[in-house]
Specification:
- There is one protein chain.
- With 337 residues, the protein is an alpha/beta fold.
- It has 9 helices and 15 strands.
- The longest helix has 19 residues.
């Protein structure tokens, strides 16, 4: 019998769950028995994990005391109902949904950025993984903090259909097919996402920002421990199946030089700089079968000499932003189990 701690994954049949299982196998994360949990509709489904065939079990019949760690990748409603039960059963919980990200006593984690919060997560038995967009931004910003204290960060974010999960990908495919066949994008009142850009992503708030924009602003401050940091975000939905792109402008207390930034990025885990930024080298479409990294290009100093630095990052939001971060956190949390 394995002496390694047991692991359960809730939402194993979703986009993030599938990518998470793939990377658990690729990185050879040490764990004991693995349980795949999902809704009644997915019960009995067989999934391949690291050369083994595992059967998906129903979440509502699982005994959480059988495992040391439960990863929730099934949405906020599921996490809100079942994560507290897992904690009460003695298991640690890593939640990938927004359910607990704004609870002041729940650590909000990005692996390699605020690892000092891991002990607090173990003590609380509950941790929230930051959103994929936050992970992508943090991996690019953290190295720059060795050069200068950040004063202002401005982000223009281009979101792919996969930001809405499998439903978003299927919606874009369906609408694209209808438009290419001379029909309206949708039979109903659904907004057109295919061959279009939508400047309002998420729920519009009274202050003019959307829920997606405020999410990135609030999470960035929480992860960096900088509630005073000036962060401004604009989100745009684009007709791309996979990937998340961010155009970032950073201002520090001291000017951030391009050569300094590139040297820091070279040493940073999870990042890959593209030489010259030509062609499709920074494309998440080409990245799908590659290592799940955040790719960085178009870095440049501002022409007015104000000490600002601009750059472009792109990543597969499912594989790099969500799954990779989760797997790295699983490794750390299980190491102390």
């Amino acid at each position: 019998m394995s002496m390694e701690p047991g692991l359960a994954v809730v939402g194993a049949t979703g986009l993030v769950g599938d990518a998470l299982l793939e990377q658990l196998a690729q990185r050879k994360v040490p764990y004991g028995e693995l349980f795949l949990l999902a809704s009644e509709e997915s019960e009995g489904t067989s999934l391949r994990v690291g050369g083994r065939s595992l059967t998906v079990q129903r979440l509502d019949g699982f005994d959480f005391s059988r495992v040391a760690l439960v990863v929730f990748a099934a949405g906020a409603a599921v996490s809100q109902e079942w994560a507290p039960r897992a904690v009460d059963a003695g298991a640690m919980v890593l939640d990938l949904s927004p359910a607990f990200r704004y609870e002041p006593d729940v650590p909000l984690l990005v692996a390699g950025v605020n690892d000092e919060q891991i002990p607090a997560a173990r003590e609380r038995n509950l941790a929230a993984a930051a959103d994929a967009a936050t992970v992508q931004l943090m991996l690019a910003l953290k190295p720059l903090m060795a050069i200068s204290e950040l004063q202002r960060v401005t982000v223009t974010q281009l979101q792919a259909a996969s930001s809405s999960g499998r439903n978003g990908v299927e919606r874009l495919a369906r609408q694209s097919a209808r438009l290419l066949n001379g029909m309206d994008a949708s039979e109903g009142a659904e907004p057109q996402y295919a061959f279009n850009v939508v400047p309002t992503v998420g729920r519009l708030q009274d202050n003019g920002y959307t829920s997606e924009e405020l999410k990135l602003m609030l999470e960035a401050r929480r992860v960096l421990g900088r509630p005073d940091l000036a962060v401004d975000v604009s989100c745009v939905q684009v007709p791309v199946f996979h990937g998340l792109s961010q155009v970032v402008v950073v201002r520090g207390g001291l000017p951030i030089g391009l050569a300094q930034a590139q040297a820091c990025w070279d040493e940073a885990p999870g990042l890959a700089q593209d030489e010259g930024g030509e062609g499709d080298g920074a494309s998440p479409v080409r990245q799908v079968k590659e290592e799940p990294l955040v790719r960085l290009a178009r870095a440049r100093e501002d022409v007015d000499g104000q000490g600002e630095l601009s750059f472009w990052t792109v990543a597969d939001n499912i594989k790099a932003g969500a799954a990779r971060n989760a797997v790295l956190l699983v490794e750390q949390l299980l190491a102390g189990a």
